[in-house]
Amino acid sequence: MKVFSAIAVQGVVEQLVPAFERDHGCKLDFTWATAPLLLKRLQSGEKADALILNRAVADTLLTSGGIVAGSDVVIARSATAIAVKAGAPKPDISTPEALRQTLLNARAISYTDPAAGGASGIYFAKLLERMGIAVEINAKTKFPPPSGYSGMFLPTGDVDLAVQQVPELLHVPGIEIVGPLPGDLHMVTVFVAGIPTDSAQPARARALIESLRTAEARALFRAKGLDPG
Predict the structure, then answer these.
(1) Which superkingdom (predicted)?
(2) Do 66 and 150 belong to one domain?
(3) Total of domains in the chain
(4) Beta partners for 179?
(5) What is the mean pLDDT of each run of 10 residues along the chain (229 residues)?
């Protein structure tokens, strides 16, 4: 069964896969990417049997008839946060002004390229514009590859700060989360599972969605920095 999934939930879903495959007698073939990149692939004609996307992309597919109406289920929510190399001093991001100054003081930072479509990257790029520091920050920004993790540059010392959703930061060893974006800058992404209208295995897709809502799955979501739906 082919599954298109946003990378933010990868750490949880991969742990649930072996039991699901054993219980349902099938193999799951995952494509991991940002939700907008997955949307482009679906719109270009690629097919999947089950989808795990952010709310905005899921709503786009619901409107166009690409997801079975009523099959969409919220499975988790994720905050965008800032991380540093493990053991490094944690900067002050307690207020919007403190965050602004911390970003300006940083030697280099990383966040996901907005062109890749990731929710945190798009939001953070707009936030830099809103804060009036986009030119300064983008001049010292290092983008990870598409569907990559901004935290990958922290252990190597290439950047001082990484910005991404909490579970994506936790996916990278050797880094520590400072905290979520402060005050009214706080941003949460909602993740939704659904069944494509052209799914070849809708019953198994529905079973997969239900497996993401069990007590075990909810505990894993919490452990990986997400709030279960």
Answers:
(1) Bacteria
(2) no
(3) 2
(4) 82
(5) 94 95 96 92 97 96 96 96 97 97 98 86 95 97 90 97 94 96 94 97 97 96 91
